[in-house]
Amino acid sequence: MQISKVIIPVAGWGTRSLPATKNIPKEMLPIYNKPVVQYVVEEAMYSGLTDVVFINNRDKKIIEDHFDYNLALEIVLERAGKTGLLEEVRKVAEMVNIISVRQKKQLGLGHAVLCAKEVVKNDPFAVMVGDDLMFGPDPGIKQLLDVAKDEKLSVIGVMEVPPDKVNRYGIIDGDEFAPGMYRVRDLVEKPKVGEAPSRLAIVGRYVLAPEIIGHLETQEPGHGGEIQLTDALKELARSNSLLAVRMRGQRFDAGDWVDYLTANIYFALQDDQLHDDLKMRLKDFLQLH
Predict the structure, then answer these.
(1) According to the model, what pLDDT value does residue 246 have?
(2) Which domains can be identified in the chain, with CATH numbers?
(3) Among 17, 183, 258, 262, which is least packed, fewest CB within 10 Å?
(4) What is the pLDDT of residues 108-144, one digit of tens each?
(5) For 65-72, which contacts have Cβ atoms below 8 Å and span 24 or more sequence positions?
């Protein structure tokens, strides 16, 4: 199973992050010294994915522009002798091949995936939610790609969540057949606390066989006219064609303010020039509060 394309939906309005996202896409909010979406694209690149398909809207062209050359800026940096920064900004433009698809109406994650039908054609592909960040020894999506290639099946990423937070996620019901690997029997979208079949929550990373497109095309729209990816995944589960992998590493939801701010600290502490001063300032703040 050779996979080169990844769909990254970025057309949403980012209402959880207002008012910061009033005029700036949530995917372009900075975490330390990079916008959120760059971390996601870097994860795809480090996993061997070469074609990034942004599912975008008319007002968020800035996301595509970030992964293009900025010749005016490059001239300024070159004249100033800032070769290190010049190299950094050029690297961003050379990471991957960017393909943009317009989503004219935001009708759910399944609809966003369906918008890429003509790009993915009959090939398997990955999906990465643009505000979910994954960090660890192995890139998050690579953990799924490795299993998908071995098993020749669709694979979704899951992580264990506290019992009182299962109602915020899609939760899987499945059987563990190898350490950290599950055959998915069913998926329950945002179950009530105490009624979830497990604590394994879907966390925004998918590797999907092309048959998922057929399920999305025939799916009846749900609440608000939306086409949910979870409903199509249920069809794969019923035919015993869906696996889940318990993902290793650290996850940050950039749409959650606590996670967003924690991610900034997480990366800043890894910068040797900032580490000591930042720890001192944080210690001072904690003593005050």
Answers:
(1) 94
(2) 5-255 (3.90.550.10)
(3) 258
(4) 899 999 999 999 988 999 999 988 898 888 898 999 9
(5) 66/28, 66/35, 66/37, 66/38, 66/92, 67/41, 67/92, 67/93, 67/95, 67/96, 67/98, 68/93, 68/98, 69/93
Helix H, strand E, coil C: the string for 116-154 is CHHHHCCCCEEEECCCEEEECCCCHHHHHHHHHHHHCCE
- Round to whole Å and give the CA distance between 232 and 255: 25
Q: For 174, list phi and psi in degrees, rounded to 5.
A: -160, 175
Residue 289: its pLDDT value, please? Answer: 66
Dist. CA 207–CA 235, nearest whole Å: 15
| 169: phi then psi, degrees, rounded to nearest 5 | -135, 170
List the structure tokens of 251: 């996850």
pLDDT band (50, 70, 90) for residue 1? low
CB 157 within 8 A of CB 206: yes
Q: pLDDT tens across 144-164, in order? A: 999 999 999 999 999 988 888
For the purposes of burial, counting CB atoms within 10 Å of the CB of 46, is it exposed (0-12), middle (13-18) or buried (19 or more)? Answer: middle
Average pLDDT over residues 10-19: 82
Angle at 122 between CA 121 and CA 123, to 5 degrees: 95
Return d(Cα 67, Cα 94) in angstroms, integer. Answer: 8
In this structure, the strands spanning 34-35 and 30-31 are: antiparallel
Tens-digit pLDDT profile for residues 172-218: 998 989 999 999 999 988 888 888 888 899 998 999 999 999 999 88
